[in-house]
Write the structure tokens for this entry.
Amino acid sequence: MKLLSNRVVRVSTGLLGLVVLVAFLGPLVSPHDYLQTDFGNILQPPGFSGAHLFGTDDLGRDLFVRTMLGVQVTILVALVASAVSLVIGVLYGAIAGLAGGRVDAVMMRFVDTLYALPFIFFVILLMVAFERNFLLIFIAIGAVNWLDMARIVRGQTLSLREREFVQAAQLTGVSFAKIISRHIAPNLIGVVVVYLTLTIPQAILVESFLSFLGLGIQEPQTSLGALVDAGVNQMEGASWMLLIPASLLALILLCFNFLGDALRDVFDARQSK
Amino acid sequence: MLRYALLRLLGAIPTLLLVIVLAFLMVHAAPGGPFDAERVLPPEIEANIAKAYHLDEPLPQQFFSYLSGLLHGDMGPSYRYRDHTVGDLISSAFPLSLLLGAMAMLLAVVIGVSAGTLAALRKDSLLDRMLMALAMTGISIPVFVIAPLLVLLLAVQLQWLPAGWSGTAGAGKYVLPVISLALPQIAYIARLTRASMIDVLGSDFIRTARAQGLGTGAIVRLHALKPSMLPVLSYMGPAIAAILTGSVVVEEIFGIPGLGQHFVRGALNRDYTLVLGIVVFYATLVVLLNLVVDLLYGVIDPRIRRR
């Protein structure tokens, strides 16, 4: 793999892998669970000597397990939301690109229109209108993030449309749906994977933004955004409650962004050759 | 130019209608009514409340009366703050948010453009790499992480600046909120400026200017700055939306009584009309500001107008 010779790619992938591994294995080895309160040990500072590696929160809950649970939730929400935006974006972009002409113009004009709106406010509106549950958060975030994907995929499809194998399929009367699934989609994988690495951090951002405001993941479940929110309320006496989840969130987002940037550079170089 | 402006203005109307329809439908698709959470009321009283807020009418009728209210500047009563209309709440809270947002935008453009230009002039130097690594960090780290960290460092630990809003006098209380709002935008604008400045500096007319003996400072000021501002200008639309989004968080963290705080409180209280009103207001604002950006684009780049 030529990609792995890129230092940025190697370091970001390694760090992300490490974080995910610890997040999913850590709680299994820890003697504490995320719900168990211990009022004799509230706001214990972090350290290797005590029973709590990351300290405890204002209810005496172990922060290592809660933070790792937060990372799990954040990553899971981001993956599922990205999958939703992937499906919507690829379908929308491929249909617009393949149809071309007036249909394409109208469809892309709609995307431009949505693009200009402060979308997060619509997500919040959805959260107000419906009960807050995991599923809705996934769908809402996915519904926000498909625009970039649709644009990229449409551009790619426009150029694929001119290739002989697609035109041959059209001439021999292969159905629209089949052309998309058999001929267009497989050729989009490269560009889609690259943009997925940039969609995931966006999804993480939206989820933690909502959770930070108290509109996302609800107690006693938690996510990195919710933990940062709790940390803000305790920061004068217990700065670790803010610093640990904040730096983990920053680390995860930085790794994804660096990774996406590097992948895009590699991909663009290959495209222009 | 006038024709271009009018066409753009007409183009904004369907967008606004789409926004209002979407927002209205989302709120009204919600299961249950806005007054369900309170104690159980006799059915007659419930019917009266529904009637007072026109909730007993069919949906299209409700929509058209909402729309005609909007055209008259009336966004209806707030469901939770019973003594206020949504219009009152917005007009009393918005000026403060506008002030903070405008200051953040100004700061972002001035510092972002300067840093980007500097990095472009010293391309591939250590300074360039450091600035761009900083910019990447600024883009990656969300406002709700940066703001508390700044508070922890500058207000709680070093005690240089006030952490809260109410009860603090002087201009010091503006510093942290404005910086928190501006930082991610500084990072974006610096990256955009660097890329387009490098592009422009490599073009023929710059080489000619250099051959005529013009110094680097004069070249940047007189020739390179204006054309390399186009990508930055087209980023202004998303930047405005991002600052609006950021203001929600920043107002919550610093306890600033602006529109963002009303929005979050409204969302947590399920104050449907308030949240709907603010979404419509924000969206209108963003659409109008995007229109202004489009027009400015036409002013800077005459090629756009003729299309």
In short: The mean pLDDT of chain B is 83. Chain B touches chain A through 48 residues (CB under 8 Å).
